Amino acid sequence: MIDVDxxxxxxxxxxxxxxxxxxxARVYSTxxxxxxxxxxxxxxxxxxxxxxxxxxxxxxxxxxxxxxRGRTASRIRSLEDQEARLRSAEDAxxxxxxxxxxxxxxxxxxxxxxxxxDVWLERLHVRRAEITIQGHGRQLxxxxxxxxxxxxxxxxxGPIELVDVRHTSPTFTFTLRGTLRALSASTRSPxx
Length: 192
Fold this sequence. Notes:
With about 190 residues, the chain is an alpha+beta fold. The protein is about 55% helix and about 20% strand. The protein has three helices and four strands, in the order ααββαββ. A four-stranded antiparallel β-sheet has the order 1-2-4-3. It is rod-shaped.
């Protein structure tokens, strides 16, 4: 390679020492630039490695926290389900106690004797002191007889009302409603 400086005449003249230094700098500049660039890149790589480890550590902490929150949420759901089951059991127990206090068993005993032969019961629902009786009868007069007969019984508090009657050939569908009388402690039978 031939090195000819075409602009040498236009440049101010330098001293020989400066010229030699510039030539050496050109020769050694590649030797200096490569290690400097390598050192800079190595420093950047070290910094990126530290930052990557810091991000990985933060990500691991976030995963642990999310897992703990997930376990806590599932435990809360489990406790809420358990609470709902306990409330349901408590309501059922309360209903049983209410029936025992209201004397549902004596009402069922007398109900069986008060039903006329051409009437049959389909559903009996007791909630607290309210009783609802549904069924079918062949004659309307039998339904009225049933309502009057039940109203006269001591287990019911007040009249039994015939609230719904529909003619569904060949029978009548009916609904009776009334209130059970609370039993006093002296009239309750043991174990009921």
